[in-house]
Design goal:
Blueprint (H helix, E strand, L loop, with lengths): L1 H60 L1 H11 L4 E6 L12 H15 L8 E6 L2 E9 L6 H4 L7 H10 L13 E10 L1
Helix pairs in contact: 1-2, 1-5
Protein backbone atom coordinates (compact mmCIF):
# COMPACT_ATOMS: atom_id res chain seq x y z
CA UNK A 1 0.00 0.00 0.00
CA UNK A 2 2.81 2.40 0.92
CA UNK A 3 4.54 1.67 -2.40
CA UNK A 4 1.34 2.35 -4.37
CA UNK A 5 0.75 5.61 -2.47
CA UNK A 6 4.33 6.75 -3.11
CA UNK A 7 3.95 5.94 -6.82
CA UNK A 8 0.69 7.91 -7.00
CA UNK A 9 2.23 10.92 -5.27
CA UNK A 10 5.28 10.87 -7.54
CA UNK A 11 3.04 10.58 -10.64
CA UNK A 12 1.01 13.57 -9.45
CA UNK A 13 4.17 15.62 -8.96
CA UNK A 14 5.37 14.80 -12.48
CA UNK A 15 2.00 15.85 -13.95
CA UNK A 16 1.97 19.00 -11.80
CA UNK A 17 5.53 19.82 -12.84
CA UNK A 18 4.72 19.32 -16.53
CA UNK A 19 1.61 21.50 -16.23
CA UNK A 20 3.51 24.22 -14.38
CA UNK A 21 6.32 24.10 -16.96
CA UNK A 22 3.78 24.39 -19.79
CA UNK A 23 2.07 27.37 -18.12
CA UNK A 24 5.42 29.06 -17.46
CA UNK A 25 6.50 28.57 -21.08
CA UNK A 26 3.19 29.88 -22.43
CA UNK A 27 3.27 33.05 -20.32
CA UNK A 28 6.97 33.60 -21.09
CA UNK A 29 6.37 33.16 -24.81
CA UNK A 30 3.67 35.85 -24.78
CA UNK A 31 5.91 38.27 -22.87
CA UNK A 32 8.83 37.56 -25.21
CA UNK A 33 6.74 38.14 -28.31
CA UNK A 34 5.60 41.52 -27.00
CA UNK A 35 9.15 42.62 -26.14
CA UNK A 36 10.79 41.13 -29.23
CA UNK A 37 8.20 42.55 -31.63
CA UNK A 38 8.55 46.05 -30.17
CA UNK A 39 12.34 46.09 -30.35
CA UNK A 40 12.50 44.42 -33.77
CA UNK A 41 9.87 46.64 -35.39
CA UNK A 42 11.51 49.81 -34.08
CA UNK A 43 14.94 48.64 -35.24
CA UNK A 44 13.60 47.84 -38.72
CA UNK A 45 11.81 51.19 -38.91
CA UNK A 46 14.95 53.11 -37.96
CA UNK A 47 17.20 51.07 -40.25
CA UNK A 48 14.81 51.66 -43.16
CA UNK A 49 14.47 55.39 -42.41
CA UNK A 50 18.13 56.25 -41.88
CA UNK A 51 20.30 53.19 -42.26
CA UNK A 52 22.85 52.02 -39.71
CA UNK A 53 23.45 55.51 -38.27
CA UNK A 54 19.79 56.06 -37.35
CA UNK A 55 19.55 52.47 -36.10
CA UNK A 56 22.60 53.06 -33.87
CA UNK A 57 21.01 56.23 -32.48
CA UNK A 58 17.83 54.24 -31.77
CA UNK A 59 19.75 51.46 -30.02
CA UNK A 60 21.80 53.79 -27.84
CA UNK A 61 18.94 56.10 -26.88
CA UNK A 62 15.59 54.32 -27.16
CA UNK A 63 15.92 50.53 -26.94
CA UNK A 64 16.40 50.58 -23.15
CA UNK A 65 13.41 52.91 -22.73
CA UNK A 66 11.18 50.67 -24.86
CA UNK A 67 12.26 47.69 -22.77
CA UNK A 68 11.41 49.58 -19.55
CA UNK A 69 8.01 50.70 -20.86
CA UNK A 70 7.03 47.23 -22.00
CA UNK A 71 8.11 45.72 -18.68
CA UNK A 72 5.66 48.12 -16.99
CA UNK A 73 2.81 46.49 -18.92
CA UNK A 74 3.48 43.01 -17.57
CA UNK A 75 1.86 41.68 -14.43
CA UNK A 76 3.68 41.97 -11.10
CA UNK A 77 6.30 39.25 -10.78
CA UNK A 78 7.18 39.18 -14.50
CA UNK A 79 10.14 40.95 -16.09
CA UNK A 80 12.00 40.53 -19.41
CA UNK A 81 15.61 41.44 -20.01
CA UNK A 82 18.42 40.75 -22.46
CA UNK A 83 21.73 39.17 -21.48
CA UNK A 84 24.94 38.28 -23.27
CA UNK A 85 28.43 37.08 -22.47
CA UNK A 86 29.59 39.80 -24.88
CA UNK A 87 27.33 42.62 -23.77
CA UNK A 88 27.24 46.17 -25.04
CA UNK A 89 25.27 47.72 -22.18
CA UNK A 90 26.64 46.74 -18.74
CA UNK A 91 23.02 46.31 -17.61
CA UNK A 92 22.88 43.30 -19.93
CA UNK A 93 25.68 41.47 -18.13
CA UNK A 94 24.45 38.06 -16.97
CA UNK A 95 24.28 37.03 -13.31
CA UNK A 96 26.34 33.97 -12.39
CA UNK A 97 23.44 31.54 -12.98
CA UNK A 98 22.60 33.23 -16.28
CA UNK A 99 26.23 33.08 -17.38
CA UNK A 100 26.21 29.34 -16.71
CA UNK A 101 23.12 28.92 -18.92
CA UNK A 102 24.65 31.02 -21.72
CA UNK A 103 27.78 28.85 -21.60
CA UNK A 104 25.61 25.71 -21.74
CA UNK A 105 23.79 27.10 -24.77
CA UNK A 106 27.12 27.90 -26.44
CA UNK A 107 28.36 24.37 -25.72
CA UNK A 108 25.18 23.01 -27.32
CA UNK A 109 25.87 25.07 -30.44
CA UNK A 110 29.53 24.05 -30.48
CA UNK A 111 28.40 20.40 -30.42
CA UNK A 112 26.21 21.13 -33.50
CA UNK A 113 23.07 20.33 -31.54
CA UNK A 114 19.88 22.38 -31.90
CA UNK A 115 19.22 25.05 -29.32
CA UNK A 116 15.98 24.87 -27.36
CA UNK A 117 13.39 27.46 -28.38
CA UNK A 118 12.76 28.15 -24.69
CA UNK A 119 14.64 26.84 -21.69
CA UNK A 120 12.88 26.87 -18.30
CA UNK A 121 14.94 26.93 -15.11
CA UNK A 122 13.29 26.83 -11.70
CA UNK A 123 15.34 29.18 -9.50
CA UNK A 124 13.30 29.16 -6.30
CA UNK A 125 9.90 28.42 -4.86
CA UNK A 126 7.48 29.48 -7.59
CA UNK A 127 10.31 31.41 -9.31
CA UNK A 128 11.48 30.72 -12.83
CA UNK A 129 13.81 32.05 -15.47
CA UNK A 130 12.87 31.27 -19.04
CA UNK A 131 15.61 31.73 -21.63
CA UNK A 132 15.10 32.37 -25.34
CA UNK A 133 18.43 32.05 -27.16
CA UNK A 134 19.25 34.85 -29.59
CA UNK A 135 21.20 33.83 -32.67
CA UNK A 136 22.49 36.22 -35.33
CA UNK A 137 20.45 35.19 -38.34
CA UNK A 138 20.68 38.21 -40.63
CA UNK A 139 23.62 39.97 -42.22
CA UNK A 140 22.14 43.34 -41.25
CA UNK A 141 22.90 42.51 -37.57
CA UNK A 142 26.59 42.43 -38.43
CA UNK A 143 26.43 46.12 -39.39
CA UNK A 144 26.87 46.87 -35.68
CA UNK A 145 27.86 43.48 -34.23
CA UNK A 146 30.21 42.08 -36.90
CA UNK A 147 33.94 42.24 -37.44
CA UNK A 148 35.72 45.52 -38.10
CA UNK A 149 35.70 44.98 -41.88
CA UNK A 150 31.89 44.49 -41.87
CA UNK A 151 30.70 46.97 -39.22
CA UNK A 152 29.53 50.42 -40.25
CA UNK A 153 32.29 52.71 -39.05
CA UNK A 154 29.95 55.69 -38.55
CA UNK A 155 27.27 53.71 -36.75
CA UNK A 156 29.83 52.02 -34.55
CA UNK A 157 31.32 55.41 -33.58
CA UNK A 158 27.89 56.33 -32.18
CA UNK A 159 27.67 53.06 -30.26
CA UNK A 160 31.23 53.34 -28.95
CA UNK A 161 30.58 56.88 -27.66
CA UNK A 162 27.71 55.54 -25.52
CA UNK A 163 29.31 52.19 -24.64
CA UNK A 164 33.10 52.66 -24.57
CA UNK A 165 33.64 49.14 -23.19
CA UNK A 166 31.44 47.44 -25.80
CA UNK A 167 32.00 43.68 -26.10
CA UNK A 168 29.14 42.95 -28.53
CA UNK A 169 31.25 42.73 -31.68
CA UNK A 170 33.11 40.27 -33.88
CA UNK A 171 30.09 38.04 -34.40
CA UNK A 172 29.40 36.01 -37.52
CA UNK A 173 26.08 34.91 -38.93
CA UNK A 174 24.85 31.92 -36.92
CA UNK A 175 26.63 32.91 -33.68
CA UNK A 176 24.86 32.89 -30.34
CA UNK A 177 24.36 36.57 -29.46
CA UNK A 178 22.85 36.02 -26.00
CA UNK A 179 19.33 35.47 -24.72
CA UNK A 180 16.14 37.10 -23.62
CA UNK A 181 15.36 36.11 -20.05
CA UNK A 182 11.88 36.15 -18.58
CA UNK A 183 12.02 36.23 -14.80
CA UNK A 184 8.73 35.25 -13.26
CA UNK A 185 7.08 34.35 -10.02
CA UNK A 186 4.11 32.03 -10.44
Amino acid sequence: MKKILTTLIMSSLVVLSATTNKDVKMEAKQALMKMGDALKSNMKKNMKAGGPIQAAHFCTKEAVNIQKEINKTYRDGLHVKRISLKYRNPNNAPSSDEEKVLKELQATMDANKPLPKLLVKKVGKNKYKVYKPLVIKKDVCLTCHGTINIRSEDAYAIIKSKYPHDKAIDYKKGDLRGAFVVEMTK
